[in-house]
Amino acid sequence: MDNIVRLTLPWRQTMATGLAVGLPSDPETLRKFRLWFKIYGVVLILLGAAAILLPGIATLATSILVGWVLIAGGVFGLISVFQAGSGSPGFWWNLLTAILCVLAGGMLLWNPIAGVLTLTVILAAYLLATGVTKLIMAFHYKNVIPQAWLWVLFSAVVDIILGFMIVAGLPGTAIWVIGLLVGINLLFTGVALLVSAFYCWSANSGTPSPSAPAKA
Q: Do 148 and 31 touch, CB atoms closer than 8 A?
């Protein structure tokens, strides 16, 4: 049981600190689970390429996905609120928030194109936030994985530029810009993650490179 707990702790840390941008903030976690992060990077690259080739479909898919996420979050919120009881602190506020999530999600599913403009603004804020986060992580990687930090830095700069491009292109490009920019974001995040996972093996001076000859 102790071994299982120790194995799951790095993933919990990754989810808490780096999953939002696809990159783990702890290089040791990246080193330990490099195979899975390589697979994750390849999947992101493929999804990004598909979204770039079909931006309109990707935009519509993003709107529908957000709608389902809002509905699921609202339903779970309602269940939690009623299980806690009307006497729990913040009952009415939490109830209102859960209902609004369900209504917002339903509106997106009913007419996903109408919600594209709002999602475009949200996407711009997300890209700017993740770009700043990646920027901080890139300089953290500089001393730990020097071969990969420039790729992470480049990915951060791309996110920030894309965020400003979304804001500058509103509202005319909203119908396709979400799918295109989400695709670019996924593509470069996947590349940064894949390169980081490849180079993290040799980052630890105590761990030999896969290509290094074994000592007699």
A: no
- DSSP code for 79: H
Q: Which two three-digit tokens encode residue 212? A: 């290094």
Contact 11, 17 (CB under 8 A): no
Q: Are 151 and 192 in contact (CB under 8 A)?
A: yes
- What span, in angstroms and rounded, lies between the C-alpha atoms of 148 and 212? 19
Surface-to-core class of residue 42, CB atoms within 10 Å of its CB (0-12 exposed, 13-18 middle, 19+ buried):
middle
| DSSP per position, 12-75 | HHHHHHTGGGTS-S-HHHHHHTHHHHHHHHHHHHHHHHHHHHSHHHHHHHHHHHHHHHHHHHHH
Query: How many degrees, rounded to 5, is the angle at CA 171 between CA 169 and CA 174?
Result: 80
Task: Judge if pTM exceeds 0.70.
Answer: no
With tokens 């709002």, the residue in question is 118
- How many alpha carbons fall within 13 Å on the CB side of residue 196? 38
Nearest to 163 by CA among 136, 192, 134: 134
Q: Lowest mean pLDDT: which of 55-69, 89-103, 121-135, 138-152? A: 138-152
The domain segmentation of the chain, as residue ranges, is 45-201
Q: Which two tokens stand for residue 140?
A: 């953290």
